Amino acid sequence: MSIIDIENLRYDYVRAAEEGNVTVSAIRGIDLSVEPGSFTAVIGRNGSGKSTLAKNLNGLLLPTEGVVRVDGWDTRDDEHIWDVRQAAGMVFQNPDNQLVASIVEDDVAFGPENLGVEPEEIREIVDQSLTAVNMYEFREKSPHFLSGGQKQRVAIASVIAMKPKCIIFDEPTAMLDPQGRKEIMKIIEHLHEQGTTIVLITHFMDEAVRADRIVIMNDGDVLMDGTPEEVFSEPAKIRSVDLDVPMAVELADRLRDQGVKVPKNVITQEDLVDFICQFK
Ligand code: ADP
Ligand code: MG
Questions:
Q1: Which helix (H) or strand (E) segment is 221 a member of?
Q2: Which domain holds residue 258?
Q3: How far is the CA of 87 from the centre of ligand 1 (A)?
Q4: 75: CA distance to ligand 1 center in Å?
Q5: For the segment 120-179, what is each residue's pLDDT rounded down to a tens digit?
Q6: Which of 22, 109, 180, 229 is positioned for an S-S bond with 176, CB 3.0–4.6 A?
Q7: Residue 184 and residue 250: Cα distance in Å, rounded?
Q8: Is the beta carbon of 48 within 6 A of some atom in ligand 1?
Q9: Does 200 share its domain with 270?
Q10: Are residues 272 and 212 in the same domain?
Q11: Is the pLDDT of residue 265 over 90?
Q12: Domain holding 114: CATH number?
């Protein structure tokens, strides 16, 4: 069974204006399923519907049309909205919107407390979750004094504490410096290795190539869906929707123009270095 199963999802924002209601169709009928334990990256230009899709994956928004099932639960089923939210955790771009308590560990305890977990077990879960994101030593600090990257790690710990099967990250590194980005990516890859299903929305191509599947959104629709190798083998199509291709793909393409036979599966910097080193 898929952990996320989307059938013909449409989502319209309706806004009241003087001249009558204005409807924006943010998602225009997409089908998508996500397998347990997989790592999917979602990319697409601003306004292509990525965040709207993300919010439909844990019941923060409900379909205008179509069905979204998370771990088997229909997100429109009121009685199981907490099952949906627990199965699919969300991490947003700005951790300030996600941290509510004045002490780091209270923030992380918030989720399990709401799930009715016993206090002793909560203590253990909080410690484990903070350790998993390398923030244990900051457990008694106020989030106020943390850097953006540290706050984002606490936000991730708060989600981990709910023991979700799947975590949806909506541009979690967009506000961070390169070092902060690297640390978040390391945590995401580690969670994936441990079996958590990952959906990562990002505009950094070097992050997207880490996934085992890339979904490209355009104008509320899925434009491409495949392995990084498949997707980046059509650089022109990607550029046509205002997206960059990863640096290594770009370089490999230029080498091919010069007659060097670079295999199609060279997409990360490591791949390219390995390819070049065989000529040493
Ligand atoms: P992305 O995350 O890819 O940038 P979004 O899902 O945020 O895209 O937005 C998709 C479309 O929906 C855009 O046209 C955007 O302007 C519109 N939109 C997003 N949020 C709202 C909202 N709260 N009200 C009205 N329109 C919205
Ligand atoms: Mg967005």
A1: strand 221-226
A2: 246-280
A3: 24
A4: 20
A5: 999 999 999 999 999 999 999 999 899 999 999 999 999 999 999 999 999 999 999 999
A6: 180
A7: 25
A8: yes
A9: no
A10: no
A11: no
A12: 3.40.50.300
Ligand 1 atom closest to Cα of residue 46 = 4
- When pLDDT is averaged across residues 184-194 and rounded to a whole number, the result is 97
Is 19 buried (19+), middle (13-18) or exposed (0-12) by CB count in 10 A?
exposed
Question: In angstroms, what is the span from residue 25 Cα to ligand 1's centroid?
Answer: 9
**Co-location of 197 and 265 in the same domain:** no
47 lines ligand 1 (CB under 6 A): yes
Position 237 in a domain: no
Identify which of 175, 237, 224 has the alpha carbon closest to the alpha carbon of residue 203. Answer: 175
- Identify whether 191 is part of a domain: yes
Q: Which amino acid, 161?
A: A
Q: What's the 22 CA to ligand 1 centre distance in angstroms?
A: 13
Q: Inform me whether the pLDDT recorded for 115 exceeds 90.
A: no
Q: Say which amino acid occupies 211.
A: A
Read off the pTM: 0.94
Residue 241 in any domain: the answer is no
Tally of domains in the chain: 2
Residues around the ion ligand 2 (C-beta < 5 A)? 50-51
Q: Give the pair of three-digit tokens for residue 276.
A: 């070049």
